[in-house]
Amino acid sequence: MRRMDWSAVPSSRPLQRCSRAQLQEQFAEALRTGHGPSGAHCIHELWMRSDPVVNIGDALEQLWKSASASIPEWLPMTWFDFLPVLYDVTARFTADAGGRSNIYLVLLDYSDRRGDPHGIYVGMSHHSPEVRFDQHKAGIRAAGSVLKRGLEVLIGPTLHLQHIPRGAAAQIEEQLAEALRAEGLLVQGGH
Predict the structure, then answer these.
(1) What is the Cα–Cα distance from 175 to 166, expressed in whole angstroms?
(2) Global confidence as pTM
(3) Would you give the DSSP letter of residue 7?
(4) Residue 184: CB partners within 8 Å, gap ≥ 6?
(5) How many other C-beta atoms lie within 10 A of the C-beta of residue 116?
(6) CA distance 4 to 7
């Protein structure tokens, strides 16, 4: 396999041209060496392909066991089936850099009350997505859905929507929530 830039953003999909066999070989090497970035890109590529043969949940568990210290923050810890939709829809939105606002997504757990076990919260803040998620969970200006049901902040899909002007962020937050609803997802926030 050619030399890879493992610091690439997930939306660039650096392994997109690899076969499933090549991805599995690279993933096995990542597990053997404890290399979180390469393992994360392998899992991400398989996830984006919606490969029915690969159990993403098992792959995530294996990678967290062997390389937890070096896994990039953008790789979700929880498997859910609509990650490709999140990347697709968020890619439709762009904004000029040079602001203090950030768009963020939070995976919500509805396994106790719906047929679909997950939903998504769309928010914006001048805080980093991780800090804002921690605030929600601590009850600081918290949305009830995130306080009660928030599993994790999803970094990857909105990496390109960080440090943008406030006006653009407010507009994107609302439009992104509507676009995700139009895809059939349960969406909270977006106001």
Answers:
(1) 14
(2) 0.91
(3) T
(4) none
(5) 13
(6) 9
